[in-house]
Amino acid sequence: MKIKEGGVSRTAFQIFNYTFLFLLMLVCLYPLYLQFITSISHGLEVMKGGITLIPRNITLQTYTTLVRGELFMYMKNTVVYTVVGTLVNLLMSCLCAYPLARRTFSGRKFFTAMVTVTLFFSGGMIPMYLTVRSFGMMDTMWALILPGAISTYNMIIIRTAFQSIPESLIESAQLDGANDLIVLFRIVIPLSKATLATMLLFYSVTHWNSYFDAMLYLNKKELYPLQIMLRNMLIGGLFNEETAIAGASADSFAVTDATLRAAAIIVTTLPILIVYPFVQRYFVKGVMIGSVKG
Amino acid sequence: MAQTAAAKKQSLKRRFVRAFQRDKWLYLIMLLPFVYYVLFCYYPMYGVTLAFKQYKPKLGIIGSPWASNNGMKYVLQVVRDPYFWTVFRNTIILNIENLIITFPAPIILALMLNEVAHARYKRIVQTVTYLPHFLSTVVVVGMMNSMFNSSGIVNQIIASMGMDKINFLNDAQYFRPMYIGSNIWQSVGWDTIIFLSALSGLDMQLYEAAKIDGAGRWKQTLHVTIPGILPTIIIMLILAMGRIMNVSYQKILLMMTGTNQSVSDVISTYVYRRGITKADFSYATAVNLFQSLVSLLFVSVTNWISRRTSETSLW
């Protein structure tokens, strides 16, 4: 419809615009696609180079080698951290958001100020590290979960959602004898499902993708998450030796560092790639809710 | 006089007690979050005093004695450390370059998306360009390494055109372009969301009026669209200025090599190395303090300028 408006220059612009956006999509997808075809190609072919669009001499040996290593251990760790971490995040954020959303709450001003300050100031890396250490959380999963139990930004989004629930609904429940804890879990949380679903996604992606906290607080290999495994493979140490031994018996050049790294990237990203198309609109919605409040 | 003051105090106390009784469930619910904020936000915030202390692990942050030189020992050490000024300069240059190049990109993309008439195509482009935002830093750097190393696809193409291969990953002069380029790749799509929502809120009547005045598409963009989303742009710019000193050090740590360190080492990576790797806690905290001060300065100045010139500000 709009295309008809402007004549030749308008049409030329539209062609340019559509083409540019198409190329942009390719740029966004190609790096992942390249990793995928690298991971299923024969190591020797990858070494020779020239794999750009189609995999060559397809083999799954890279993946079987990866699985024979300690992949499942790392993956299990990541799943545990993500699930427990996200549950703690959601619970704590809701507990914090509810009183702040109640307009009649006498401590509202004080607690709102206390929370807002943390948006602008923080102790920084070293005091945080020493804090976690002094609480005896080194080499436990709590070091990855408790220090970030509430993301103030996300909590404010939840508070905004809670505020949109009519106060009269809460008051009538209280007249029926319900205390605030019951109101929160029976009325407010069920009515805010859409927002909480968005937060669930935000929090869980953050946990799944984080590597730095694990690098700071975990020294035991059996506690490492998937992202640390990948990082160590990139730096090139640890993993190569193990997998080289595991792969030595088979066709020795089928699996190389390059194909192993590619496969590890795919395995690490796969859960996000699978879930992403279905939840994408929730993510966007979450950003919108946040932006309303500034 | 004294009596009324005492009475006032009494009634204030009574009011407080009554409010507390009325809201006791709310206070109870707030208890865990309160403990969280004290332990993991305010206690570390107090930990910044470490910059002025002689840290003794057994005494903890609170118990450690003040450092010599009226507590200024480490701050002075930082100021006199020539390497600190190198990383300070690196931080500022990297961030300003990054801001100038990264900031306009999503605005342009949002304007381009806004011109797409087919809702379906627009949605597909959005879905695809948001995707890189959800990939982990390790994955992004991993893909970058494999594409740009000496045998990677980019150098294969360069070699096939008969040119010399480029050492993108180790050569110091390519660090900033690689860092900024990958930042754009990761965030350009996702960052359009906020601008697209501003665009969808624009008043269609303004466009009708502009059309009657004979303005074409381009003039409409220039005189209606861009002024319309300007407040959003300014707010986003102030926020970006506030973050100017917090480079994504997690990514830099992964990209850093022995040969690009002269350019890639920034304040946060220096803090990490001195503090965590070498356990030089007070010194590292003092270094970090400078970073916080500079970013506070940046936000305040930008906020002041924008309030003066456009009446849009954070506070």
Written description of the protein model:
The complex is a heterodimer of chains A (294) and B (315). Chain A has 294 residues and is an all-alpha fold. Chain A folds into two domains: 2-69 and 236-292, no CATH class; 71-217, Orthogonal Bundle (MetI-like fold). Chain A has 15 helices and no strands. Chain A has helices spanning 8-39, 43-48, 61-68, 71-101, 108-120, 125-134, 142-145, 152-163, 167-175, 180-191, 193-209, 212-217, 226-235, 239-248, 257-292. In chain A, helix 1 crosses helix 15, helix 4 crosses helix 13 and helix 11 (193-209) runs antiparallel to helix 15 (257-292). The longest helix of chain A has 36 residues, at 257-292. Chain A is globular, with a radius of gyration of 25 Å. In chain A, 37% of the residues are buried. Chain B has 315 residues and is mainly α. Chain B folds into two domains: 2-52, no CATH class; 76-310, MetI-like (MetI-like fold), CATH 1.10.3720. Chain B is 73% helix and 0% strand. In chain B, helix 12 (204-212) crosses helix 13, helix 13 packs antiparallel against helix 17 (281-310) and helix 16 runs antiparallel to helix 17 (281-310). Chain B starts with a helix and ends in a 5-residue tail after the last helix. At the A-B interface, helix 1, helix 4, helix 5, helix 6 and helix 10 of A face helix 1, helix 2, helix 6, helix 7 and helix 8 of B.
Give a nutshell description of this structure.
The complex is a heterodimer of chains A (294) and B (315). Chain A contains 15 helices and no strands.
Task: Sum up the structure in keywords.
A: 294 residues; mainly alpha; 2 domains; 15 helices; globular; B: 315 residues; MetI-like fold; 73% helix
List the helices and strands and how they pair.
The complex is a heterodimer of chains A (294) and B (315).
Chain A: H1 8-39, H2 43-48, H3 61-68, H4 71-101, H5 108-120, H6 125-134, H7 142-145, H8 152-163, H9 167-175, H10 180-191, H11 193-209, H12 212-217, H13 226-235, H14 239-248, H15 257-292
Helix pairs in contact in A: 1-15, 3-15, 4-8, 4-11, 4-13, 8-11, 11-15, 13-15
Chain B: H1 2-22, H2 24-46, H3 60-63, H4 73-80, H5 82-102, H6 104-114, H7 119-130, H8 137-148, H9 153-160, H10 175-187, H11 192-200, H12 204-212, H13 217-242, H14 249-255, H15 261-264, H16 267-277, H17 281-310
Helix pairs in contact in B: 4-17, 5-10, 6-11, 11-13, 12-13, 13-17, 16-17
